[in-house]
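In the design runs reported in the main text, the only information available to the sequence generator was the tokenized backbone. The following block is the verbatim input for one such run; it is reproduced so that readers can re-run the procedure and compare outputs position by position.
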């Protein structure tokens, strides 16, 4: 297994632990406060590992300001939605719904980016939606506002992802990230300042938020490292490990135990994600892996001959 996959698994584990901590805040902090402080603390590991070639003064130098502003706003809305979902419904249910994001991206990419809709994509879309329906079971149980917030997160995040595809070819990473961070800090900061019931968290809450934000920043660094060491399509599949972590952490810390139907739905959601891992991609990775092994063996044999 490529070392990049281990980095990716570590990244999504970091995200999952951070999400589990967010759930623990419940109603003690608003989504605005959680977003503000976790975003602020997430900058610590990110800035500490920033490439020297990227200058902070160049964050807002862009030719696609309108698209970046729109993406920053949508990313903030998606973040607020998912924080609300984490603090009001089960972790595993939130992940199952949020993992509809790739399906929404597929539809939007066809509509706006004119990408091809293959049979495999249709199958992935149908499987993902049916899995979520098994988890949520509308009509058989009462839907909460947290479920709607999770659906909202999936939709707004998918639009933001399509915008990212549009600007990623021309804009620097620091600019793309900078706009999102600016929206998160400025708008949530304004809401906190104007709301009498919101203020500085307690020292314990602040320390917990620091850990949560640092886990998010660490996950970001690990994902970047993973994509440099392994194929992007393989890294993308590792995100479904978050569902496993959600079940474990939800059961251990919050006594959330999915029933048989819920587990079946979660399994279908994961299967839907792996449908996009085509045999052609698998053969490409396997072939590259075999070539790398042969190169190492040849190099070792040549070194032995010299000795």
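Verbatim output:
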């Amino acid at each position: 297994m490529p070392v990049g996959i281990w980095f990716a698994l570590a990244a999504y584990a970091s995200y999952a632990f951070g999400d589990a901590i967010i759930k623990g805040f419940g109603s003690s902090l608003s989504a605005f406060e959680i977003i503000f402080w976790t975003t602020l603390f997430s900058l610590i590991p990110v800035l500490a590992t920033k490439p020297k070639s990227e200058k902070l003064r160049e964050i807002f130098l862009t030719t696609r300001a309108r698209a970046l502003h729109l993406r920053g706003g949508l990313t903030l809305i998606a973040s607020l939605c998912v924080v609300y979902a984490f603090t009001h419904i089960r972790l595993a249910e939130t992940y199952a719904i949020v993992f509809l994001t790739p399906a929404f991206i597929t539809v939007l990419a066809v509509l706006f980016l004119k990408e091809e809709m293959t049979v495999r994509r249709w199958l992935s879309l149908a499987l993902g939606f049916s899995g979520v329906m098994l988890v949520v079971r509308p009509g058989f149980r009462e839907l909460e506002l947290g479920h709607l917030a999770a659906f909202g997160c999936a939709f707004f995040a998918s639009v933001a992802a399509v915008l990212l595809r549009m600007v990623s070819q021309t804009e620097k990473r620091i600019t793309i990230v900078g706009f999102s961070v600016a929206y998160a800090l400025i708008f949530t900061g304004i809401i906190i300042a104007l709301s009498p019931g919101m203020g500085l968290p307690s020292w314990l809450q602040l320390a917990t938020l620091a850990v949560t934000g640092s886990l998010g920043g660490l996950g970001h660094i690990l994902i970047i490292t993973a994509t440099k060491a392994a194929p992007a399509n393989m890294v993308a599949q590792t995100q479904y490990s978050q569902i496993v972590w959600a079940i474990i952490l939800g059961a251990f810390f919050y006594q959330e135990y999915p029933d048989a139907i819920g587990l079946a739905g979660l399994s279908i959601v994961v299967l839907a994600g792996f449908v996009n891992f085509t045999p052609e991609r698998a053969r490409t990775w396997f072939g590259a892996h075999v070539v790398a092994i042969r190169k190492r063996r040849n190099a070792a044999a040549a070194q032995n001959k010299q000795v």
